[in-house]
Write a structure and sequence with these properties.
Strand content: 15-25%
Number of helices: 4
Keywords: Cytoplasm, Methyltransferase, S-adenosyl-L-methionine, Transferase
EC number: 2.1.1.77
InterPro entries: PCMT, SAM-dependent_MTases_sf
Largest sheet: 4 strands, parallel
Helix content: 25-40%
Distance between the termini: 34 Å
Number of domains: 1
Subcellular location: Cytoplasm
Strand order of the largest sheet: 5-4-3-6
CATH topology: Rossmann fold
Mean pLDDT: 95
Bound molecules: S-adenosylmethionine
Order of helices and strands: EEHEHEHEEH
CATH superfamily: Vaccinia Virus protein VP39
Enzyme class: transferase
Low-confidence stretches: none
Shape: globular
Number of strands: 6
């Protein structure tokens, strides 16, 4: 998380380092840093050099960028969000923060997280940053 500067991923840079959710536009928020720390810690064993990670509901791209640092240039992180403007913004945010991540290991796509993102499956870890009452079949079993 120290390698990803949250000010690039929040609408209000003056509150970027508060441990609270922040608005990112389009009625969406970036989660609080302690929530991101919890998720990254929980998934650490599955996010090694070369791992493949799907970040569903990637918002402004912050957590996907963290995963990209963890998996390194031989890994792959795909962030998907159903709001096209946020997907475009997340690319710009990473471009401003750490553009090399976009060369190979990190990509963002518009999509409905309920059907996963089969094109880059299988994944070692799937983080869901949006609520769904159950795990949708295509997220749990992407290749069936
Ligand atoms: C609370 S925000 C979290 C954003 C990001 N994961 C973070 O922690 O900063 C939830 C995100 O999920 C996205 N989202 C909600 N439902 C979705 C769906 N069915 N498919 C893809 N994205 C979705 C929203 O557009 C929003 O960007």
């Amino acid at each position: 998380m120290k390698m990803v500067d949250r000010k690039h991923y929040c609408l209000n840079p003056e509150e970027a380092y508060f441990d609270s959710p922040q608005f990112i536009g389009y009625n969406a928020t970036i989660s609080a840093p302690h929530m991101h720390a919890y998720a990254l810690d929980y998934l650490e064993a599955s996010c090694k050099e070369g791992s493949r990670v799907l970040d569903i509901g990637s918002g402004s791209g912050y957590l996907a960028a963290c995963f990209a640092h963890m998996v390194g240039p031989k890994g792959k992180v795909v962030g998907i969000d159903h709001i096209p403007e946020l997907v475009e913004q997340s690319k710009l945010n990473v471009q401003a923060d750490h553009p090399a991540l976009l060369e190979n290991q990190l990509e963002f796509h518009v999509g409905d997280g309920r059907v996963g993102f089969e094109a880059a499956a299988p994944y070692d870890a799937i983080h869901v940053g949006a609520y769904h009452p159950t795990i949708p079949h295509q997220v749990h079993h992407p290749l069936t």
